[in-house]
Amino acid sequence: MSAGSPQPIRHYLQFSDFDAADYAHLFARAALIKKKFKAYERHQPLVDRTLAMIFEKASTRTRVSFEAGMYQLGGSVVHLTTGDSQLGRAEPIEDSAKVISRMVDLVMIRTFEQTKIEAFAAHSRVPVINGLTNEFHPCQILADIFTYIEHRGSIAGKTVAWVGDGNNMANTWLQASEILGFKVHVSTPSGYEVDQSIAGLRSGDSYEVFRDPMEACRGADLVTTDVWTSMGYEAENETRRTAFADWCVDTEMMRAAQPDALFMHCLPAHRGEEVEADVIDGPQSVVWDEAENRMHVQKALMEFLLLGKVA
Ligand code: CP
Ligand code: NVA
């Protein structure tokens, strides 16, 4: 178990938990791990290690990518949800953390408030990974930037246009821009802006706000968006539908971006709402690579958290 491991515990609760050198390592490892996977070559550094996955919200990609990824690394997984564990019956998060982390080597949590995953991590004997909270989705941005690098090379100095809600994805893109040296053009409807203190930014110098989504896309190297209503905010569905009507990424916005601009969406997507079908299903879209890359980058992440910077 990791309690006796020589590695100090590191958690991955938000993008800013790692620095640029850590990311350089992770992207290089993910590329190697992906190459081996494609060649049907075994890569099993985590034999006998167990990952607990705790889901308090629905998931397809996060569940499959962590579960398949951990098996491929030689380990195994335990899957818990609020409905089928004591978590849904108000067992304190601190007690859950103490118990679960005595039996497994790694924990991935998808939950609501960031404070909840922080409380879990504070009482965990093993590394904790954020599989999405209301505030952040670091594993997704890790995959998105890896995908950008695969298609276009380094993201440093590039411009990412964020069109839509000032949500967990937007916050995480902003954190990433400060660490990896790129710029974000943010356009949200009014009332749905990014809150710099929630996003946990160091300076706020790496992003610019645009009222008009078309202006945000102008000259961008990557255009990206997300659902209008994130999980946990369903009661606001109808209000959001009206407020976000002009924040649908369409072919005109893509034309305002660089001719070789990529389109990304973390998925699940709603064609005709936040993105036109012609864009998400068009030639500039790399959404399927993004989804697949969740698995490869998370394999690199789990290896890093348990074994450090292995060569
Ligand atoms: N992008 C993403 O996290 O997808 P799931 O909600 O399906 O896990
Ligand atoms: N912002 C979305 C992302 C889903 C993967 C949500 O939190 O529901």
Task: Write up this protein.
- The chain is an alpha/beta fold.
- The chain folds into 2 domains: 15-137 and 291-307, Rossmann fold, CATH 3.40.50.1370; 140-290, Aspartate/ornithine carbamoyltransferase (Rossmann fold, 3-Layer(aba) Sandwich), CATH 3.40.50.
- Helices cover 41% and strands 13% of the residues.
- It contains 12 helices and 9 strands.
- It has helices at 20-38, 61-72, 93-103, 114-122, 138-152, 168-180, 196-199, 213-217, 237-243, 251-256, 277-280, 287-307, and strands spanning 50-55, 76-81, 106-110, 128-130, 159-163, 183-187, 207-209, 222-225, 262-265.
- The strands form 2 sheets. The chain has a 5-stranded parallel β-sheet with strand order 7-6-5-8-9.
- Strand 1, helix 2 (61-72) and strand 2 (76-81) form a beta-alpha-beta unit.
- The two termini are 22 Å apart.
- The mean pLDDT is 97.
- Phosphoric acid mono(formamide)ester (CP) binds next to helix 2.
What series of H and E elements makes up the topology? Answer: HEHEHEHEHEHEHEHEHHEHH
Which molecules are bound in this entry?
Answer: phosphoric acid mono(formamide)ester, norvaline
Principal-axes shape call: globular
Sheet of most strands: 5 strands, parallel
